[in-house]
Every structure is written in structure tokens, then in C-alpha cells.
Design a protein that fits this description.
single chain; alpha+beta; GMP Synthetase, Chain A, domain 3; three-stranded mixed beta sheet; 20% strand; elongated
């Protein structure tokens, strides 16, 4: 539920012009006592500067997001949210890109090398 509320808050309730691109809440890890939440964000933007501005704007709006979360939760207290960049997705994409690059190089080498003639029997 925390993930859904935070996603909705970022997409629909923040009007900061620094927020650009696509922001995805990739995961939320709650402490056992539910008083703190580690929120991991993936930001897709045109440049690293835009990503940094977007993340800074969301981090700046943490109290606003927490208040929206508190209104949605039916609990005695609202967890304190801590935002982090989720680099795992980018690392996965980079690994996939490298694998594809190696596969393409291998395919090109195989196409360029002549196939040996079978021996006459």
C-alpha cells in the first residue's frame, strides 16, 4: 500500500517543475515496527542533471508525501519515508546491453568466416 500511495503522490500530487521524466517506485522496505520506510526510486529523464533535479524535488517533498500517506493509512502512526535511487535497474539494463553487444559481435564474426567444406568420402 505504501508503494501505491507514494507512486500516486509523486505522479498526481506534486507540482514541482523540477520533476521531469518518468519516476517509478521500484520497491519499499519497511522496518519491522513500520515506523520507517526505505523508498527506492527509478528516474528516467533526458539527462543526469534532470534525474538529479527530479530526485532532489521528490526528496524535498518527503513531508508532503508522508502527509498523503498518513491520510491513506488506517494506522496509529505514519512511517517516516527515506528516499533512495534504485540503480539496480540501470545495472541490469547495462548488463543486458553488453550481452547483446557480444552476441552481435559473435554473429558478425560467424557470418564473415567461411564455413569449411565437408571432406569427400
Amino acid at each position: 500500500m505504501v508503494k501505491e500511495v507514494v507512486s500516486d503522490a509523486i505522479a498526481n500530487h506534486l507540482s514541482d517543475p523540477r520533476i521531469a521524466g518518468l519516476v517509478t517506485v521500484t520497491r519499499v522496505e519497511m522496518t519491522p515496527d513500520l515506523r520507517n520506510g526505505e523508498v527506492y526510486l527509478s528516474v528516467w529523464a533526458a539527462s543526469d542533471a534532470a534525474k538529479n533535479k527530479t530526485f532532489a524535488a521528490i526528496d524535498h517533498a518527503a513531508k508532503r508525501i508522508q502527509s498523503l500517506l498518513g491520510a491513506a493509512l488506517e494506522s496509529k502512526f505514519c512511517p517516516v519515508l527515506h528516499f533512495h535511487r534504485d540503480e539496480h535497474f540501470y545495472k541490469t539494463l547495462e548488463t543486458m546491453r553488453l550481452i547483446e553487444e557480444v552476441a552481435n559481435e559473435r554473429r558478425i564474426r560467424e557470418e564473415q568466416s567461411p564455413t569449411p567444406e565437408p571432406p569427400d568420402l
